[in-house]
Amino acid sequence: MVLDPASKHKNLNMPKSNVSTYFDESHIQQVLQAINIVEVIGNYVSLQRRGKEMVGLCPFHNDSKPSLNVNPGKQIFKCFACGAGGNAIQFIMRREQMTFPESVWFLAQRAGVKLPEKQVQAHEGMDRNELENLNRWAAKFFRDQYDQDELGRVAREYVENRFIRADVAKRFGLGWAPNSWDNLLKAAQKAGKPAAELARLGLLVEKEQGGYYDRFRERLIFPVTDALGRVIGFGGRTLGDDPAKYINSPESVLFNKSRALYGLHAAKDSIIKKRTAVLVEGYTDCIVAHQFGLANVVATLGTALTREHAEILSRYADTIVVVFDSDAAGEKAADRAVEVFFAQQVEVKLVSLPEGKDPCDFLLEQGDRGKESFEKLVSDATESLEYKWQNMERQLAQTNTVGGHKRAVDEYLMMTAQLLAQENIDNISRGYLLNRVAKLVGMTNDQAHRKVNDHLRRMKASVSGQRHSGAIPLENRSVRSQREAVEQEILEVLLNRGDLFEQAREEIGPDEFSDPVLKQIAQRLWDYFGSGGNGPLAAILAGCESTELCNKITDMAENGSRRENFEVAMKRTLESLRRLETEQSQQELHRMVSHAEEKYGKDAETALLLEIQAKHQKRSKHQSDPRQSNALFGS
Length: 635
Ligand SMILES: [Zn+2]
Description:
By secondary structure, the protein is an alpha+beta fold.
């Protein structure tokens, strides 16, 4: 399997949204049939034929030799360097930073496939496009006032005093909302723009007694765009004496603060090229960074780094570098960063600026050397795991004894266990994370794994409050990992030879896959083949909204395709599965016998029979109910 270190530990969690609220799977298949992946990708990458495949430079990492393979037969793409893979929809999602429904829509329009329009409308009034146009109109209105000689002077002077050049202010579309309650309102009426829709976007506020007033008054306006440059909301800094220094658009159909990243449109290409995104906190920090030629900088809108931010940035970058301006801010940032790292499996690093300086001050103070000095800080950034460890160790080692260090190690491993328990992390990633933790605290991998597992067991035991909790007995570990290998092999074969599905279905159901990620993939395959699907790999990937899951599936398909004889491979794996199941049930039986004896003494035999019966019923469930819909894929 081709995996680079960054993708090795990616989390494969699915986003919450479900595409089936927008399209039926049949629509998605229709779009996939109408397009050719070679043409779609050919619009972005120059492709050359090599054997049965087309190759080109991968747009998702800094590629020097053609690593991107496009397979016209399977209608999929796969990068052998960075692990990116999927069908045409997933290519567009990544390249254009669109949501899944948006990419389906985008490709449908190109191919002339008509999708049911009603389903994509999120509400009764204006649709997304019209609302974006309305926002763009407002941004232009604010900009016009900024440019007006007298009216906009105060805003232009402020910007000039912050050492932001006029051309840069223009590029970021800075605008001005003068001190008035109905400035925008009147302009909207004159231009025939509906006030109710402007209120939905948060630009106007509805009065209790009816009518509207302007939300942004006496404020410098920062239009916030998405990755495609569409205006999704606004930020406003007061230039008067309003105690609220900054306000943002309220949440709307278009605007979500925990997802929005200021400057992403301007920064996207540079982030893709460098595979690194630098995150600062303020609008002006971001703008000034770009003015200094630091083109991969984006800003959050007054929030700390969220999972959603990380999810978006991980489409372009392997590493997110969070910049903060004081030790106190750093400690908070580190906690968030470690959490996000566990949740999204994207590398998060931290940079501390000299105490009390924001990035803007720092750059201006450095002058000509600003870019170079800032880049140096970024390249010296500390990994979040390490940063957190250093913090803990420093605090607890203040006692300056061996005990202090030991306590720090203990607390750190406890934190690791807690984060692992919170997140749904597959085994490969888990092992990788634990090895890193071990290295940091100066333990062997085995020691760290054991310690963290102890914590996890204790946590589970205290949650359930029972002696026999759901914790996995250690002695079953090797059977478990063998089983996962077998499960993976079954899927790898099926991804290449759907006609062997019936053989697999007789032996195992998706519910029985033990690894959570494999279970999701199995569910998809069982749904797809079970309903008679026999399209190329692209069709199997049709409804997959998660980039990481798509990468994993294409990886597995590729891995499987190297096998010589699929029939033999399937037969052998299913045999191994049966053998492992026998071993597992023997271990289980052994455990149940000792449990029953301990609990019921001489009535053990009866109790045991009941338990075995219950187990048996549970096991045969998948045969009566093979299809369960999966939030992962629309279907
Ligand atoms: Zn790549």
